[in-house]
Amino acid sequence: MNFDDFDISDDIKKAIGDMGFTKPTPIQAKAIPEVLRSIDLIAQAQTGSGKTLAFAVPILEKLFIPDRSPQAIVLCPTRELCMQVADEIERAGSKIKKLKVLAVYGGQPIGKQTRVLKKGVHVVVGTPGRVIDHMERENLDLIGVESVILDEADEMLEMGFREDIELILASTPRQRQTLMFSATIPKEVREIAEVYQKNPKFIKISSNKKTTPKITQYYFMCDIRDKFDSLTRLIDAYDVKRSLIFCNTKKSVNYVSKHLKKEDFPVDALHGDMTQKARDKVMNKFRNGNISILVASDVAARGLDIDDVGVVINYDVPQNNDDYIHRIGRTARAGKSGLAFTLVFEDEIPRFNRIKKSNKVEKKEVPMPGEITEMKANLILNEVKKSKNLDEYIKIIKKNEDNEFSSTELAAALLKKMREK
Ligand code: AMP
Fold first, then answer.
1. Do 326 and 232 belong to one domain?
2. Is 185 helix (H, G, I), strand (E, B) or coil?
3. Domain of 154?
4. Coil, helix or strand at residue 279
5. Does the beta carbon of 318 sit less than 6 angstroms from any atom of ligand 1?
6. Whose CA is nearest to atom 19 of ligand 1?
7. Looking at the chain, which terminus has fewer C-beta neighbours within 10 angstroms, N or C?
8. Are residues 245 and 196 part of one domain?
């Protein structure tokens, strides 16, 4: 199947082509024809499944552009998702002349959003709170709305937006189309469906993008000011060798690699703006062991054959679950086990919560400097305990025991020596 099989305009097909997409994802293949038929839908799909275009494409197809009043409204749990969704709708509608899409969310001056709303928009993407705010100020009239989309419905309800959502739904025409996209279908989602949807069709897409159970995933909460310090403590405590540290921006890549270098870690950086020659040089250093830590952006790491790393560290929380899975999948290859760490500071919590939902990530504390020695020693001891055929060495230890060094002290000295290595 490809996008040509849908009953949608050439403008949209062309825009999707420009976005680089040729084949619809499973959720798009199932949902687009149904949404075009204007029926109600509950779609169970994860972030990363392509769910945004699954509703954006048919919604765009149904717009009547000469009418500049909101015809579709998308509700999202966070400001970040609002921006992302609005951007994706705009991109899919980039060939539709005079199309106006607006994201409305808290934290941005309301006046600017009001001015755009007053000029007229076709699609509003908003957080429930800010949408209500605009309705109360009479900036936003939902009387002409034909489709309401609840994106990440479970998340919105969990965040306490139920009343706002119900008020918004009740302010739209009864004959509207109501679409719910949700990663999980808890009771509250079903209750909203029962009251506000008409014979909804249920579509489920099981995410086949699962990470292997061989990756042990931890996340660490930290203060933005302590992020770098937390990173070095993790590298130290977990005795990180051959690792890949991911950052979201070139600036962040440069910051992390520069400061790790300053602290004598064997590190180098890879980012999108480097020439092929410079990248090859870094990759060679990594392959032949001259450096063991690589700091990279998603773009820079794409297509690179960096597989056998023991630890992947997300210095910045990735933008979405797809990127997360892609990043951490660089470890635990070929039957080996691996570790994946994610550092999370306050602003990244909503984004991380969405990733956490689809993955088995356990919370851990960043070790305090005083704990690091013990953690490292324990790692060595766990390895040491696997040793067999020790008779010969036991004899040597026994011979070396004297008043100054008991066998315990000899063991402690060996441990210290190994830790300093
Ligand atoms: P979403 O689940 O909507 O957050 O989408 C996840 C990612 O998949 C986004 O980066 C989209 O741009 C991308 N995407 C959406 N549709 C397709 C498609 N048909 N083929 C490839 N990638 C897609």
1. yes
2. coil
3. 3-205
4. helix
5. no
6. 24
7. C
8. no
